Amino acid sequence: MIIGNVDKDEKRKKFTLEIICSNCKAKVPGRMQTSEKYYGTTSFIKEVAYFKRNYLCGRCRDKKRIAKKRSPTKTTLDK
Ligand SMILES: [Zn+2]
């Protein structure tokens, strides 16, 4: 997963982040990357915090996607 914008010729900084799913609280080890010059900046820290707050694990993301797809048709078809 990449934080911020990394140009393809830019040096990358790799780091691990312990992310917790904001829905089921499952711990997910996040292997993250960012550009070397972005790492540690204020906007980087803010972006990481935002990312962590809104993170959904793969399973919850799938559930959310399915729920989104179903709900509009369900309301019109249900009697
Ligand atoms: Zn989850």
Question: How would you concisely characterize the structure shown here?
Answer:
The chain is of the alpha+beta class and 79 residues long.
3D architecture notes:
The protein is α+β, with helices and mostly antiparallel strands. The protein has one domain (12-77). The protein is built from two helices and two strands; from the N terminus they run E-E-H-H. The protein has helices at 42-53, 58-77, and strands at 12-20, 27-35. It has a two-stranded antiparallel ribbon with strand order 1-2. A hairpin with a 6-residue loop joins strand 1 (12-20) and strand 2 (27-35). The longest helix has 20 residues, at 58-77. The radius of gyration is 17 Å and the shape is elongated. 3% of the residues are buried. The mean pLDDT is 89. The structure holds zinc ion (ZN). The site of zinc ion (ZN) has 8 residues, from helix 2.
